[in-house]
Design brief:
With about 180 residues, the protein is mostly helical. It contains 12 helices and no strands. It holds the Pfam family Vac14_Fig4_bd.
Length: about 180
């Protein structure tokens, strides 16, 4: 239903409205679940390609306003907050958030969400993020954030997947041009 609404109406307005509503939600478990669902739709729906592109480039007041609105609601769920930071290329903040994960209660549900985020990183939506791993010098916090996720995961298939991805990050000395 949400995907169809985004096709028929302005996707930015729909996500903005839903985020505003979730800010006032008193049932925090429900808010966390809804934020996770909205985040999954945002990251995977072809209908939201334009909205994702708008969020990747936070140079306009509208895109910054949307990011701030989503961020306040996305904070109901720590892993979705990190994925929003990845989407918007706020890698230092993603790294800072992941550092705070050590203070959280790590549950099976939490680890499952981290596992799903790792799977999403391997999807076409995050191709730009994976390509930015080539620019080690300008993206140290992206690499640190991904290593932080790796350290959170038990040795599972997601751990292996992310570990293999990080092994592909080039040595910065080898990437220097003459």
């Amino acid at each position: 239903i949400r995907r169809q609404l985004c096709l028929l109406l302005n996707a930015e307005n729909i996500f903005h409205s839903m985020a505003d509503i979730l800010l006032r939600e008193e049932d925090l478990k429900f808010a966390s679940t809804m934020v996770h669902t909205l985040n999954t739709i945002l990251l995977t729906s072809s209908e939201l390609f334009q909205l994702r592109n708008q969020l990747k480039d936070l140079k306009t007041p509208e895109s910054r306003n949307l990011f701030c609105c989503l961020y306040r609601s996305w904070c109901h769920n720590p892993v979705t907050t990190v994925s929003l930071c990845f989407l918007t290329q706020n890698y230092k903040h993603a790294y800072d958030l992941i550092q705070k994960f050590g203070d959280l209660e790590v549950t099976v549900d939490f680890l499952t969400e981290v596992d799903k985020l790792v799977q999403l990183i391997e999807c076409p939506i995050f191709t730009y993020l994976r390509l930015q791993l080539l620019d080690v010098k300008n993206n140290p916090y992206l690499i640190k954030a991904l290593y932080g996720l790796l350290m959170l995961l038990p040795q599972s298939s997601a751990f292996q997947l992310l570990s293999h991805r990080l092994q592909c990050v080039p040595n910065p000395e080898l990437m220097q041009t003459a």
